[in-house]
Design a protein that fits this description.
- It is built from 12 helices and 12 strands.
- By secondary structure, it is an alpha/beta fold.
- It folds into 2 domains: about 100 residues, Aspartate Aminotransferase, domain 1 (Alpha-Beta Complex), CATH 3.90.1150; about 230 residues, Aspartate Aminotransferase, domain 2.
- The strands form 3 sheets. It has a 7-stranded mixed sheet, with helices on both faces.
- The longest helix is centred in the first third of the chain and has 15 residues.
- It starts with about 25 loop residues before the first strand and ends in a 5-residue tail after the last helix.
- Bound molecules: 4'-deoxy-4'-aminopyridoxal-5'-phosphate.
- Its cofactor is pyridoxal 5'-phosphate.
Amino acid sequence: MTSLDDLPLRSDLRGLSPYGAPQKRVPVALNVNENSHPIPEPVAHDIVASLARAVLSLNRYPDREFTGLRGALAQYLGHGLRAENIWAANGSNEVLQQVLQAFGGPGRSLLGFVPTYSMYPILASGTGTRWIAGTRDADFELSPATAAEQVRRAKADIVFLCAPNNPTGTPLSLETITAVYDATDGIVIVDEAYAEFAPDGAPTALTLLPGRPRLAVSRTMSKAFAFAGARVGYLAADPVFTDALRLVRLPYHLSALTQAAAVAALAHTAEMLAMVDDIRGQRDRIEQELPGLGYRPYRSGSNFVLFGGVDDPQATFEALLAEGVLIRDVGIPGHLRVSAGTEAETSAFLGALARVGRAGS
Ligand code: PMP
């Protein structure tokens, strides 16, 4: 049998494994922070009609500038943003990769504050960018002083701020973002993948964009919008920032089907986001009930909860899986992470955790 070692693979990729959480068929999957509510049927019909129209023109390449989609995303975000402020790609992972292709690369570096989204160092490695792991304050918080001091010291070309932070759920203040921006001449990305789950009226980095051309705010339709399977991520920034990303994107990177599906979904924003309140309610319920089971949840502005006090995370993970509930061991000793699901799924998780008990951990 031929093995990877037989191929002339880049030496920095040797020995690595592909990233990805287990994709297991289980009754209750709460491991990748998806929106577990299906798309409402009337919206699905509209998306199908939009796709059907797009199929008739699949002989042609799609709109390379995805103009309609950028306009729809700008309108959704508000804050005076226009189509030229918006960039999109196949998931925000691809948007972040394009940011590193444009602004990172060999001889350049990316700073993030761990524990944070585990794709950041992987995107760095894939683009030959040096990853710098910054640290956080107690309880995974990130104060303006802590962040700015490390930004000044690291002199990184790019800083990724995850707000709220995955896997900890920790919200991030606008003060920390402006302190970081002022402490660097480099690019600052605020990854707001979970922004819609923040309390109503919570601050967003979108308000900081005017006058800050090195700042970009990345978002996704994968979470609140229940559109993970369609792969649509996007960012908002100064139009000159999107010009930079155009230099590294593949031509026609967003298929006509993706554009058609996303535009149709965005025409139904209210219905698509109707479940966000429910999900926030289930997240709050998890936070309220975990202490009674002997665990310590962290404050979360997202659709998931990190909790500590787990003696043996792998054993608890396995015991829950045996009960049909899949959650996530994010590699933080003594901790596990669970996504807030439907009310029934959340009940299944809490019930299984109570049955598994601390003895199982
Ligand atoms: N950023 C964060 C913080 C995430 O948690 C995720 C998904 N887990 C992403 C970006 C990527 O999401 P997508 O590529 O589906 O838009």
